[in-house]
Structures are given as C-alpha cells and as structure tokens.
C-alpha cells in the first residue's frame, strides 16, 4: 500500500500534483475530490485541509517516519521534490531560480488566470470591467513567460523542474482564457515540448476532463 495519499481533482492546481507524481514515478492512492459536488467541504476533507481546497497530500511516511500532511499545490511540489531528490536542485542559487518561478505561478499566474476562468466562463453575470482587468493581466503574464522562455528550454536553470510542472496546467487552459498561443511563440514551443512528455500527459489525464 503506497504511503502517499493524494486528494485532488481535474483542475489546474489539482493537476500539478498528479503531474509531479507521474513524473517522479511515485505510487500513490488517488482520492478524487469532486469540487462540483462540494466534496471539499466534507468533514473528512476539512480535517486534511482546513482551507477546503484541493490538492492536499498526506504522507504516512513523512519526516522522521511520522504521518505528515501538506496543503497548497506549490508546497506539495516542493515537498515531493525534496522527498525524491527530483526536479529541484539542491544548490542554493539554482534552487531559488526554481522557487521564484514557482512563486510567480502561485502568486501571479494561478490567481489571475483563475479569475479569467471565473469571469469569462463561470460567472452568470458578465462584468466587462472584471473580464478586461483579469484578461489584460493574464495577457501581460503570458508576455512575461514568453520573455523568460526566449532562448531557454525550461523556466529555470536549463533543467526541467517543478517550476515547469506548476505552470503547465494553467497554460493548458489557454482556450478558456481566449489566448492564442501563437501570439507567444516561446510559450507555445515550451508547451508543445512539455505536453509531449508521456508522464506529464499521463499526469494531466489521471482525472480526465
Ligand atoms: N493556492 C491553492 C489554491 C487551491 C485552489 O484554489 N483549488 C481549487 C481548485 S483549482 C479548489 O479547491 N476550489 C474549491 C473551492 O474553492 O471551493 C493551491 O495552489 O493549492
């Protein structure tokens, strides 16, 4: 029985964790938490994540062999990277190259793209101010990513890392964001290269659309 229990769903934040599991070749127990059915608010799940958001990870064999739970997708990727020694360099400068792009995703791309999804697709009332505000910021962030990837294969250190894994499921929703990837040719090249990876594409489809 694997020691890792992953509670997740088929959303961009949820898929970061399944990508990491598959890329690291880890065995894990998958617990789908269907957020459209409010499973994130069940007493059992709140016991794991008091913030009622997926993904969440429980490691029965955590630090010092004790059970340990981790919330927040960025922290889950960092935890698994440290546990496996994969996709995050140990050397300080290189490690912070990765961490800063993970933070850029967690603090910028995720929240802003999430608002684009909400105001363009989910909101019953279409609010032009909100749609324009978040769409413009989303486009600006694609520009930042495109510049970063100009002349680079990966986001950090010329090595595949958790920075790439956390960005990918958000870029994969470019159609929801009404972003033409061809307008950002470096992002497009990176995206096509990433999605071609068998483990990554498996991770994206563990809970299919
Ligand atoms: N900062 C959190 C965000 C997690 C998050 O927003 N998860 C969404 C799905 S992508 C969720 O659980 N939504 C359910 C809800 O808001 O009730 C992370 O990166 O893990």
Q: Mind explaining what this structure looks like?
A:
The chain has helices at residues 12-24, 43-48, 73-84, 92-122, 128-148, 162-171, 185-195, 198-204; strands at 4-8, 29-32, 56-59, 68-71. With 209 residues, the chain is α+β, with helices and mostly antiparallel strands. The chain has a four-stranded mixed sheet with strand order 2-1-3-4, with helices on one face. The longest helix has 31 residues, at 92-122. The site of glutathione (GSH) has 15 residues, from helix 1, helix 3 and helix 4.
Uncertain spans, ≥5 residues at pLDDT below 50? none
Q: Which percent range describes the beta-strand content?
A: 5-15%
Percentage of residues assigned to helices: 40-55%
**Strand order within the widest beta sheet:** 2-1-3-4
For the report, how would you describe the main beta sheet? Answer: 4 strands, mixed
Silhouette: globular
Q: What is the first-to-last residue Cα distance?
A: 27 Å
Cofactors, ions and other ligands in the entry: glutathione
Instruction: Give the structural class.
Output: alpha+beta
Which key terms come to mind for this protein?
binds glutathione, alpha+beta, four-stranded mixed β-sheet, about 210 residues
